Amino acid sequence: METIHSFTIDHDEHGEGFYLSTDVSGIQTYDLRFVYPNSGDYLPSPVMHTIEHLLATVMRNSKKSEDVVYFGPMGCRTGFYLLLKNSTLTEARELTKESIKISLTLNTVPGAEKKQCGNYLEHDLEGAKVALAKYLAILEKIA
Ligand SMILES: [Zn+2]
User: Fold this and answer.
1) pLDDT confidence of residue 21
2) What is the pTM of this model?
3) Strands (DSSP E) found in the chain
4) C-alpha span between 13 and 142 (Å, rounded)
5) What angle do CA 135, 131, 102 make, to 5 degrees?
6) What is the torsional sign of CA 107, 110, 116, 118?
7) Which of 34, 54, 109, 142 lies 20 to 30 angstroms, CA to CA, from 45?
8) Contact at 8 Å (CB) between 125 and 50?
9) Residue range 93-113: average pLDDT?
10) Which helix (DSSP H) or strand (DSSP E) does residue 62 occupy?
11) Both ends of the chain: CA-CA distance in Å?
């Protein structure tokens, strides 16, 4: 089988940050790399799960909601994928920064009731906020 695009990226050269991964058929896939790959430091599953609920909800309630195709975790637990329609790298990064700022003000995890989530007990709002604040600082350094 052919190697898919995300496995062709040199992960030794792809540290913390915000990257355009692919731009196919008008849909841009961004890599939101929270932690350095293969560093031994990975986001805990409850933290990833809560960030998924927070950013997916906030982005889908933003002015860009019509362009949000998907937001979800990387299986390697170093970050997230954001899929947008008709976006530039700068717009995607600004949407992410604004969505993180709103997420940091929330005191409950959206969609975390038993009927709304497949693992509703596995959340960590405080841990998610720590990881989001750290990632926001990384994004603020980029632009
Ligand atoms: Zn869930």
Assistant:
1) 93
2) 0.93
3) 17-24, 27-33, 68-73, 79-85
4) 16
5) 75
6) negative
7) 142
8) yes
9) 98
10) none
11) 39
Structure tokens at 79: 């970050």
In whole angstroms, what is the distance from residue 108 CA to residue 24 CA?
35
Mean pLDDT of 98-104: 98
Could you tell me the residue ranges of all domains in the chain? 5-142
Please tell me whether residue 73 adopts helix, strand or coil conformation: strand
What separation in Å is there between the alpha carbon of 72 and the centre of ligand 1? 11
55-87 burial: b if 16+ Cβ within 10 Å, else e: bbbbbeeeebeebbeebebbeebbbbbbbbeeb
C-alpha 39 to ligand 1 mean position (Å) = 26
CA of 87 to the centre of ligand 1 (A): 27
Q: In this model, does residue 128 exceed pLDDT 70? A: yes
Quote the ligand 1 centre to 51 CA distance (angstroms).
10
Residue type, 108: T
- Which are the contacts of 115, defined by CB distance < 8 A and separation ≥ 6? none
Residues with CB under 5 A from ligand 1 (ion): 117
Tell me the CA–centroid distance for residue 49 and ligand 1, in Å: 6
Of 17, 13, 94, give the one whose Cα is nearest residue 59. Answer: 94
Q: What class does CATH assign to 5-142?
A: alpha beta
